[in-house]
Design brief:
Blueprint: E1 17-21, H1 25-36, E2 40-44, H2 48-69, H3 74-82, E3 85-88, H4 91-95, E4 100-103, H5 109-122, E5 128-131, H6 138-142, H7 147-151, E6 153-158, E7 167-172, H8 178-190, E8 194-199, H9 206-222, H10 228-238, H11 245-252, H12 254-269, H13 282-289
The chain binds 1,4-dihydronicotinamide adenine dinucleotide.
Subcellular location: Mitochondrion matrix
Organism: Kwoniella pini CBS 10737
GO molecular function: (3S)-3-hydroxyacyl-CoA dehydrogenase (NAD+) activity; NAD+ binding
């Protein structure tokens, strides 16, 4: 099993208490897998309504898991895991006793830095801080904290939907300590995920390779080289991908992809990523402007019947 690869050389306090900030799509998923792995979880957000939304996402997802794992006692299975999750809007209280904080709030460098700067004063010295950001620099977020905390700071990038996707990218900044990395690896394995390690670079591993590929697929359509349908069929049957690029673009959201490309264009100015990879695309901008964002809006490259 994967546990074989775990280093046993470094001493780390075992993580028992997890605090998740942000009860949206990702935060709810992270709280759920944490609770399923036996951690004591506190889920925190700015409003009671957001917390309620998070608990709803978790309950629905847990019932789906229960249908497979414990079909005779769906209620019991679900409530047994839900009892590991507490909620609060009080950020200071949420971290006072925590071993690990995972932040999954809105993708804004300022809001994330404000939150971590505040939490740095409130959490135990040993508490590890992690951000689920997909497009921001982890180092820049970490710099809102003291030097000691920066050694206990890393990126922990989960994938949507969290309960189903096995991968977690652990992002090390130059300040992240080996002990912190090992503790995060251990806790993600306990969550039944497969961790990989990457430096703090644009897109980390998955998006760094995936986004340029998706953008080039759009350019092919824009040039009239092939249709979205044929490109999807080609990549599914010829490259063995489970989903062609246009199905994936519609699933992720065209606005999200466009937003990531925009951020990278800024990084291309300083040479962190090559300019050609993220050249603006008229067709993508046009679809986003028209509100054709993919599955969630009912239309992207394909049409969807969201009433079903
Ligand atoms: P979301 O919009 O579903 O949820 C964000 C939640 O954060 C909301 O409930 C909001 O009320 C809350 N929030 C905002 N400011 C807060 C604060 N100061 N303190 C506590 N809670 C606060 O967003 P989503 O999609 O869950 O994304 C969260 C993070 O995860 C972002 O950084 C995003 O880039 C990243 N991410 C998203 C993925 C996706 O597929 N949606 C995949 C991987 C990472």
């Amino acid at each position: 099993t994967v546990h074989r690869h775990l280093s046993t050389t470094s001493q780390v306090n075992k993580i028992e208490k997890l605090t998740v900030f942000g009860a949206g799509l990702m935060g709810a998923g992270i709280a759920q897998v944490g609770a399923q792995s036996g951690l004591k979880v506190i889920l925190s957000d700015v409003t009671d309504k957001a917390l309620e939304n998070g608990l709803n996402i978790i309950s629905k997802s847990l019932s789906r898991v229960a249908k497979k794992k414990s079909p005779d006692d769906i209620e019991g299975f679900t409530s047994n895991i839900l009892k590991n999750i507490e909620t609060t809007t009080d950020a200071a209280k949420a971290v006072q006793d925590s071993d690990l904080v995972i932040e999954a709030i809105i993708e804004s460098i300022k809001v994330k830095r404000d939150l971590f700067g505040f939490l740095d004063e409130k959490a135990k010295a040993e508490c590890i801080f992690a951000s689920n950001t997909s497009s921001l620099s982890v180092k820049e977020i970490a710099e809102s904290c003291s030097n000691d905390r920066q050694a206990r700071f890393a990126g922990l990038h989960f994938f949507n939907p969290v309960p189903a996707m096995k991968l977690v990218e652990i992002i090390k900044t130059p300040q992240t300590s080996t002990e912190t990395f090992e503790a995060l690896k251990e806790v993600t394995l306990r969550m039944n995920k497969s961790p990989v390690s990457c430096n703090d670079t644009p897109g980390f591993i998955v998006n760094r390779l995936l986004v340029p590929y998706l953008l080039e697929a759009i350019r092919m359509v824009e040039r009239g080289d092939a249709t979205p349908e044929d490109i999807d069929t080609a990549m599914e049957l010829g490259a063995g991908y489970p989903m062609g690029p246009f199905k994936l673009l519609d699933f992720v959201g065209l606005d999200t992809t466009s937003y990531i490309a925009q951020g990278w264009r800024e990084k291309a100015q300083s040479g962190e990523i090559s300019k050609e990879l993220v050249e603006p695309i008229g067709l993508l901008d046009k679809l986003v402007k028209e509100g054709k964002l993919g599955r969630k809006s009912g239309q992207g490259f394909y049409e969807y019947d969201n009433k079903k």
